[in-house]
Amino acid sequence: MPIPVPSILILAGGRGQRMGGRDKGLLEWRGEPLIAHIQRTVRPLCDDLVISCNRNQEAYAAYADQLVGDAEADYPGPLAGVIAGLAVARHDWVVLLACDAPMVDQALIDDLLRLAVAGDCVAMVRQSGYWQPLFSVLPRRVLPVLEQAWAAGERSLQKALLREAVSALECAEGDLRLSNFNSPDLLRS
After folding, report:
1. Angle formed by the axes of helices 78-88 and 143-151, nearest 10°
2. What is the domain partition of the chain in residue ranges?
3. Is 3.90.550.10 the CATH number for 7-188?
4. Least confident stretch, 75-79, 90-94, 156-160
5. pTM attached to this predicted model
6. What's the pLDDT tens digit per position in 107-147?
7. 104 Cβ contact partners less than 8 Å away, ≥ 6 residues apart
């Protein structure tokens, strides 16, 4: 089965609390902003790279085809960023990634896309029994489901996505591709 051309949605809209309030996607790792590492990996896969960011849009513009921000102020969380990104995505399938996961690779994304298309549903990484919603492929048609969840008060991206059928891509506990750089110490590696 051929892999469809997806939109790519990178979430970079958080407060960066664990990074002292700094914008995580723009923090340097190995001489470049984290967002540059991810963009280099996903750019060959798509013609619609969307970055959800609530600040520093001018800096992120160099890495994206489209920028979106949350509809509500005060950093309401990943679910808000996903809703905003799905609303502008140009393709039927959307790869969802976080800006602080610079070691993700094309093989992982391809595996998620194949799984999503084969099951005609959300595909999400599961690691040691835990879902990893920021490594997912979503059919764009889940947007109304996520909007309804939001309207009902749900703020958890994982819980909102699990309202639909989800296929799991099982990944090993120590899979480095899933490394999130959530502390300043990790950036020194």
Report:
1. 140
2. 7-188
3. yes
4. 75-79
5. 0.90
6. 999 999 999 999 999 999 999 999 999 999 999 999 999 99
7. 38, 41, 97, 135, 177, 178
